[in-house]
Design a protein that fits this description.
By secondary structure, the protein is mostly beta strands. It folds into 4 domains: 101 residues, Sandwich (Immunoglobulin-like); 97 residues, Immunoglobulins (Immunoglobulin-like), CATH 2.60.40.10; 98 residues, Sandwich (Immunoglobulin-like), CATH 2.60.40.10; 112 residues, Immunoglobulin-like (Sandwich), CATH 2.60.40.10. It is built from 2 helices and 33 strands. Strands 27, 28, 31, 32 and 33 form a 5-stranded antiparallel beta sheet that branches. Strands 4-1-8-6 form a 4-stranded mixed beta sheet. A 4-stranded antiparallel beta sheet has the order 3-2-5-7, with no helix packed on it.
C-alpha cells in the first residue's frame, strides 16, 4: 500500500494529540471525623460533583458508590479540581497540593489523587453486632446483625433504617444538635455501644458526642449456630483442604422440643429462639462419624445461651470405612475393647478420668456407637441404666469416650460403685448390635482414686441390657 502525504500527516497529528492530552482521576472519601485519614467506618463518598477547570472547557462528573472520577483526554497543562456536595466541604487531598487541587498531564503534577471531604451538617453512622454471650464486648464470634430497625429521633423529622447483612446504618444531612439512636429486632435487646454513652444513644454533629460508633445487641433467647466440616484424615484438626460438609443432620435436644436441621453446601446450621439454658448437639451423616469440636467440650456437645457455654462452634466429622476389603471376610460387630483410668489433679472435683475405647465394624457403615452404663454400690443396689452417650469416632474403626467418675456416678447417691457398661452399634442399615455387659471398673466419687481396672473385661449376664432410644 502506498502511503500518501495526507495519511502521514493524519498519523502524526493523531500521535501529537495523544501525547498532548492527559488523564485526571481519583477517589473522593468522606472524612467524617475530619482527621485527615480514612477510618474503619469511613469510605468512598457518593453523589459528589467533581469539576475540572482551567485547561480547556470546564467539565464535571458525579461520583458513584465507589467515589471515583476519571477525566480522559485532558489538554496538556495545569488544571484544577474542585468538589461539592450538600452538607460536605473540601478538607484535604493526598498528595496535599492546596485547593482547588492542581492536576494535569505534566509529570511534575499528580494525575491520580485522593480527595477528603468533611461534613458540615450532622452525620450519624455505625454498625450493629451480635453479642452472643451478652458480655457487652465485641468478641471474635460477634458478627454483624441483619434486620435491625435503627430509629433516629430528636433532631428534625424522625428517621428509620433497617440494617443489611453488613449491619451498617447511615444518616446524613442532620441539623446541628443532639439526636438519639434506638435499635430494635425481635428476640434481641440492646447490650452496649462503643463508645458507651447511655441509651437511647446520644449522637450528633457536636464534636463532644459520637457520630460514628458500634452497637451490640444480645439475644433474648438462646442461639446455637456453627459449621460442620469434613475431617478427611480423621485427625480431629481442620486442615486447609477440609471444607464444610453438606447433608449432615444436626440434632438439638434437651432445651425445649427436639430440633433438627440438615446442612447445605456451606455446612452451616443455626437454631434460634431457644430457651435459656444448656442444650446438646449431635451430628449424623451416613458413612461419617463425629471427630471433634472447637471449642472441645465433649460429646454430645453442650451448647446454650449461657455465657459459660459455647453458642457458636465448629464441628468436625470424619469418614467411616463402610465396606469389606475385597476377598476379606469380616464379621459385623465389635472387635476390640480397651479401658484406661487416669488419676489427675488429686483432691479436685473431677480427678478420675476414665476412657472407654472400642473397635467396631459394619459392612453398611456405622451410624453411631453408644455407651450405656449404670452403677452398683458395694451392697448390690443398682442405679437405672443411663440414656446412653454417643462415642466420638477416632478413625480406623475406633471409637473413644472419656468420662469422669462423677459423670459415671450421675445422680446416684453412691460414693463408691462398680460400673456396668455396654456398647451398642447402630448400623446405617440393619439391626442394632450389642456387646456383652462389662463390670471391670470400680470408681469413687470426687477426689478419691479408683483402683486400676482389671486386665480383661468380665461379662455380666445377670443384669438387663439397655435399649437404645432410637431404632433404625
Amino acid at each position: 500500500m502506498k502511503i500518501t502525504r495526507w495519511m502521514l500527516f493524519s498519523l502524526l497529528f493523531s500521535l501529537l494529540l495523544t501525547a498532548c492530552t492527559g488523564v485526571v482521576q481519583g477517589v473522593v472519601y468522606g472524612d467524617i471525623d475530619s482527621s485527615g485519614e480514612i477510618g474503619s467506618l469511613e469510605g468512598p463518598l457518593e453523589g459528589v460533583s467533581v469539576q475540572l477547570a482551567g485547561c480547556g472547557a470546564t467539565v464535571s462528573q458525579l461520583t458513584g458508590a465507589d467515589g471515583a472520577f476519571d477525566f480522559q483526554e485532558v489538554p496538556d497543562g495545569t488544571c484544577a479540581v474542585q468538589v461539592s456536595k450538600g452538607c460536605w466541604q473540601f478538607f484535604h487531598s493526598f498528595p496535599d497540593l492546596g485547593y482547588p487541587v492542581p492536576v494535569a498531564s505534566d509529570p511534575d503534577l499528580p494525575t491520580s489523587i485522593g480527595v477528603l471531604m468533611s461534613p458540615t451538617c450532622g452525620i450519624v453512622r455505625g454498625r450493629i453486632y451480635r453479642d452472643l454471650n451478652g458480655n457487652g464486648i465485641e468478641d471474635d464470634v460477634d458478627t454483624p446483625l441483619e434486620g435491625v430497625t435503627v430509629d433516629l429521633t430528636d433532631c428534625g423529622p424522625a428517621l428509620s433504617q433497617v440494617t443489611a447483612p453488613d449491619g451498617f446504618f447511615y444518616f446524613d444531612g442532620l441539623p446541628d444538635g443532639t439526636c438519639h439512636v434506638a435499635v430494635s429486632k425481635a428476640g434481641w435487646s440492646f447490650s452496649n455501644s462503643f463508645p458507651n454513652v447511655g441509651y437511647p444513644i446520644p449522637v450528633a454533629s457536636d464534636a463532644t458526642l459520637p457520630t460514628s460508633f458500634g452497637i451490640l445487641m444480645s439475644p433474648n433467647t438462646g442461639i446455637v449456630q456453627g459449621v460442620v466440616y469434613g475431617d478427611l484424615d480423621g485427625d480431629g484438626v481442620q486442615d486447609e483442604d477440609e471444607v464444610p460438609l453438606a447433608g449432615v443432620e444436626v440434632h438439638l435436644d434437651d432445651c425445649g422440643p427436639s430440633l433438627m436441621q440438615t446442612t447445605a453446601d456451606d455446612g452451616a446450621f443455626e437454631f434460634t429462639n431457644l430457651p435459656v439454658g444448656s442444650c446438646t448437639l449431635q451430628t449424623i451423616k451416613a458413612g461419617w462419624g463425629f471427630s471433634n469440636s472447637f471449642p472441645n467440650v465433649g460429646y454430645p456437645i453442650p451448647v446454650a445461651s449461657a455465657p459459660t457455654l459455647p453458642t457458636a462452634i465448629g464441628i468436625l466429622m470424619s469418614p467411616i470405612a463402610d465396606a469389606i476389603d475385597e476377598g476379606t471376610e469380616r464379621a459385623a460387630g465389635f472387635e476390640e475393647f480397651a479401658l484406661s483410668v487416669d488419676l489427675i489433679y488429686p483432691g479436685l472435683c473431677t480427678p478420675n478420668r476414665v476412657s472407654f475405647e472400642v473397635k467396631a465394624f459394619h459392612p453398611s457403615g456405622i451410624r453411631s456407637v453408644t455407651l450405656f452404663f449404670k452403677v452398683e454400690d458395694p451392697g448390690g443396689e443398682q442405679s437405672p441404666w443411663n440414656a446412653g452417650v454417643s462415642m466420638p469416632f477416632m478413625g480406623d474403626d475406633y471409637y473413644l469416650l472419656t468420662q469422669t467418675a462423677d459423670q459415671l456416678l450421675g445422680s446416684s447417691d453412691f460414693d463408691e460403685a462398680t460400673v456396668l457398661y455396654q456398647f451398642v452399634l447402630e448400623p446405617s442399615d440393619g439391626e442394632f448390635i450389642r456387646s456383652q455387659v462389662f463390670r471391670n471398673l470400680a470408681i469413687d466419687r470426687c477426689g478419691q482414686a479408683p483402683p486400676p481396672p482389671q486386665a480383661t473385661a468380665t461379662p455380666d449376664k445377670s443384669g438387663p441390657t439397655p435399649t437404645p432410644t432410637k431404632q433404625p
